[in-house]
Amino acid sequence: MGGSIWGMSSVLEVLFQPKFIDLAAVSAFLELGLGLSAWKCYESTEWSLRMNPASGNLHPTECYLILPECIGVPACIAHYNPLPHHLEIRAELGSPEIEPVKGLQGFGLILSSIFWREAWKYGERTFRYTQYDVGHALGSLGFSAALRGWKLFVRP
After folding, report:
1. What angle do CA 56, 137, 141 make, to 5 degrees?
2. Helices marked H in the chain — which ranges?
3. Which has the closest alpha carbon to 99: 68, 65, 130, 54?
4. pLDDT digit string (tens) for 9-29?
5. Are residues 43 and 52 in contact, defined by beta-carbon separation less than 8 angstroms?
6. CATH placement of domain 23-148
7. Which of these, 111, 108, 106, lies nearest to 150 by C-alpha position?
């Protein structure tokens, strides 16, 4: 080591080289970014906590993936369900639909928010809180991506 910051930098370069993208890598990425982190219980009530914080533990943020065929599943649009920690394929992509996906150097991720999950609690502040929740999910996914050596890009 020799106390040099450059010596430490070379170690970090080895540790953070991008990992290969396959189904196991996507699974780990989702689990660390949006998965369940713990279970709590009080008397007869039990509930889960997620890796990403959400206002009032309501979790209105849903995650969909646009996956190329090369990672162990057919090219598809899939929903991530954190309770059983699995992907639910919503639509397989045929030849015309797959063309934009082929240009990705990885896979696409879509975050959406379910407004009514918070509307009953926050009223007119709901829009703001759902935006916070999407931001928290994005931040959590960013940390998870960094642990894998991946880069997360936001595209409008």
Report:
1. 150
2. 5-15, 23-34, 95-102, 116-122, 126-148
3. 68
4. 444 445 556 777 788 889 999
5. no
6. 3.40.109.10
7. 106
- Give the tens place of pLDDT for each residue, 47-100: 888 888 877 667 778 899 988 877 678 888 999 999 999 999 999 988 788 877
How far is the C-alpha of 101 from the C-alpha of 107, rounded, in Å?
7
For residues 53 and 70, is the Cβ–Cβ distance under 8 A? no
Among candidate residues 144, 141, 117, 111, the one with its CA nearest the CA of residue 129:
117
* Closest among 149, 153, 141, 112 to 32, alpha carbons compared: 141
Q: Which sequence spans correspond to the domains of the chain?
A: 23-148
Q: Give the least confident one: 39-43, 64-68, 99-103.
A: 99-103
Separation between Cα atoms, residue 146 and residue 140, nearest integer Å: 10
